[in-house]
């Protein structure tokens, strides 16, 4: 996953500056067409999903009143797992992106929605919408790239602690909602010095996160289990299992969106002076899709169309499938690689990279059967130093 600027073969070296501007123009046209045609059909879709999710959650919690009986426990747990996934992925994530703000419905609006997750909505929107979507796959700027705890690029200096990377990546997946809350707080940076730890703004945000976690724990592990009386322990176990399933699923979908082989990463300086068209190009190169049927797309919050989502994060999620062929045609017309594949393939690819980057570069490169040195690619965009280098650069050990 060497950053694009250090690759021996640059995937965009053949593009001219005019090509990039033309790509941006075509994508803007796709966006304008969706905005011009969104309406009641889209509003009915999100209202229907919310209605189904709430009924499924309520029904599953009712079934858990009988969770002392294994069949009821399995049915209630499965239903609650699906309900939590729907709430986080197709509803919460997309509502907080502002995809449905045009409806002017205060109950389905990015400024009022609070989701079933440990991370407070306002902090998540800052870390995700403002930072991740602005600095997608820029090493050192995008916290979603490795969540601040993983080695995500061969050019990051290796340390023996990274041998444990697969383990803590799995632990992070199991407790993903808390991992998200932690990196929304930028704990690594804010706990690094006494001055940062004492910063009033950081302390206020930390109190907000702890308050949200207490609220979530009270709802999931005290109030609802108590309501089921003698089924308290089995209901609590069912809720914990549903949260675990939701966390593992969400983590897998996010990993598949930015970490499989074929997805590019970028150096910090490469986005200096970046135009809107160049931003579009970076989203195209820095994202990957998951192929599948309608159920897959809904359960991933339509992040199975991660490429389309990163190009148009505020368009209604139900439109991504509709515009995907048009987006893919642009990839084909300009000789770009549209990274997609079934879920098992994408998950395997992402975890293979997690394992490979936990090893020293020389060992990892032998596993990949590639040279231990990389030469910089030629400049992809003539006149823009940020997209390429001319000197030879050794890969650090």
From TrEMBL:
Domain Fatty acid desaturase: 72-340
One GO process term, biological-process aspect: lipid biosynthetic process
Coiled-coil stretches noted in the UniProt entry, renumbered to this chain: none
Single annotated GO MF: oxidoreductase activity, acting on paired donors, with oxidation of a pair of donors resulting in the reduction of molecular oxygen to two molecules of water
GO cellular component, one term: membrane
Cited PANTHER family: DELTA(5) FATTY ACID DESATURASE C-RELATED, FATTY ACID DESATURASE 2
Protein known as: Fatty acid desaturase
